[in-house]
Write a structure and sequence with these properties.
Blueprint (H helix, E strand, L loop, with lengths): L13 H8 L8 E5 L3 H7 L4 H22 L3 E8 L7 H24 L2 E6 L7 H13 L6 E9 L1 H15 L9 H5 L12 E4 L18 E4 L9 H13 L11
Parallel strand pairs: 1-2, 1-5, 2-4, 3-4, 5-6
Helix pairs in contact: 1-8, 2-3, 3-4, 4-5
The chain binds farnesyl diphosphate.
Farnesyl diphosphate (FPP) binds next to α2, α3, β2 and α4.
């Protein structure tokens, strides 16, 4: 077991059993997560939806720490979609406030754990104070190298593709014959970041909900009925173990 996980997981536990199954030489480089089920988690307890989001932010901390300790290089979390603006105004306000508070209080953790933060999505539209906090942390952590945490905020996959097309047209430097997939990827919000190897979705819904539409072309999907606030280290290890059993062929007949 890797040094960084020692002392973090209980000896003899289910977590330890799963970690022992993981081949550390074949870890997914990039994990993306659709964190779903906060509202249902709260409803089942007769609590307000925002309580589900609060509990969900604890799962965010645990997932980020676990991925960093495991040796994952990139973790992308779908925290606020462009469609989430349709929710009741009080929920929207509380969600952004929660995000800002989490970024403020966890800022220190990013430095202590050598984590880099970056955000993807439409920045115009993100509440000013949240954006200020994001940009402050992006700057402060830009040289950190252990893992990059990518927050998708005010994010939509189709909007991202449209924006990329707009940037290409406006640049007037890209000739149609030079535009291949790699070149196009560079114009997305995720330019320079490898595509996710594994996409986790909690709460059992079988959809991709406008998330990283271009980038997940060959991503392995892992869907669990567990609601996001209940998502623990063990679930993450289970996803990685399952991912490593997959035969990734990228359209070829042989595994890669
Ligand atoms: C989906 O659950 C979750 C969201 C729309 C928000 C995700 C936000 C967090 C986990 C909170 C904090 C995030 C960070 C990065 C600190 P839902 O409300 O759609 O659940 P439901 O489908 O059960 O109603």
């Amino acid at each position: 077991m890797w040094e960084s996980l020692k002392g973090y997981i209980k000896p003899g536990s289910e977590e330890e059993r799963l970690v022992r199954e993981i081949d550390m030489a074949r870890l997914p480089r990039h994990i993306a997560v659709i964190m779903d089920g906060n509202g249902r988690w709260a409803a089942r307890r007769g609590r307000a939806r925002v309580e589900g989001h609060k509990a969900g932010s604890e799962s965010v901390r645990e997932a980020a720490e676990t991925c960093a300790r495991l040796g994952i290089s990139y973790l992308t979390l779908y925290a606020f979609s462009k469609e989430n603006w349709k929710r009741p105004r009080p929920e929207v306000i509380r969600l952004w406030r929660l995000l800002r508070d989490s970024l403020k209080t966890d800022g220190r953790l990013f430095m202590e754990n050598n984590l880099r933060l970056t955000a993807i999505g439409q920045r115009p539209g993100i509440p000013r104070l949240v954006l200020k906090e994001i940009e402050r942390l992006e700057k402060a952590t830009e040289r950190n190298s252990r893992m990059t945490l990518i927050l998708a905020l005010n994010y939509g996959g189709r909007a991202e593709i449209l924006e990329a097309v707009g940037r290409i047209l406006r640049s007037r430097t890209v000739r149609p014959q030079d535009l291949d997939e790699e070149h196009f990827s560079g114009f997305l919000y995720t330019g320079g970041i490898p595509d996710p190897d594994l996409l986790i979705r909690t709460s059992g819904e079988m959809r991709v909900s406008n998330f990283l539409l271009w980038q997940i072309a060959y991503t392995e999907l892992w869907i669990t009925p567990v609601l996001w606030p209940d998502f623990r280290r063990k679930d993450l290890f289970e996803a990685v173990v399952d991912y490593q059993k997959r035969d990734r062929r990228f359209g070829d007949v042989q595994s890669r």
